[in-house]
Amino acid sequence: KAVIKLSMRKQIKFNNGHLKVLQISDLQDNRFTCVDTLRFMEAAVKSIKPDLIVFTGDQLDVVDLWGKGEKCRKNVEKAINRLFSVFESFNIPFVLTFGNHDRETGLPNDEQAKIYAKMKNCICFDDVNDGRPDAATFNVPILSSDGSRTAINIYVVDTGTKINGVYGGVRKEQLEWLDKTSREVNADSIVFQHIPVDEIYELLEKVPKGTKGAEPAYGNRKGEFYKRRDDIKFMGAYGETPAALPRECGEFEQLKKQGDVFAVYCGHDHYDSFIGTVDGIDLGYCPGAGYNTYGIRQREVRVFEFDENDVKNYKTYTVSYGDVCDKPLAEPVKTYIFSIAPCCTPQLPMFAVKVFSLLALIAVLFVLLAKIIGSKIVIGILSAMLAVAVIYFGGAIIYNTVTRKKLIERYQNERGN
Question: What is the pTM (predicted TM-score) of this model?
Answer without folding.
Answer: 0.91
